[in-house]
User: What shape does this take?
Amino acid sequence: MPWRPISLIAPGTATDTSGPEEVRDVLAPIAANHDATLPQDALAWLLAVDPAVLPIPATTGIRHFRENVSALDLELTTEERARITDLP
Assistant: This one.
């Protein structure tokens, strides 16, 4: 069960999805290709890693819950998954 496999926030920082620039630089164009958010990209990547992976995303309300669940519908390309996997 992965927790924050792609750091979108600095440790100890209040929840925010802007994240480090190198992460945004990779996730932003992928998100734009799928009309998705950066966290949705991260969840879609986790779900594509292995069927045994169980992401546990934070959810702050029903809108956020729906956003997280909609990551199930994102199908990242092999190249997109590799770009995310290669993040530091």
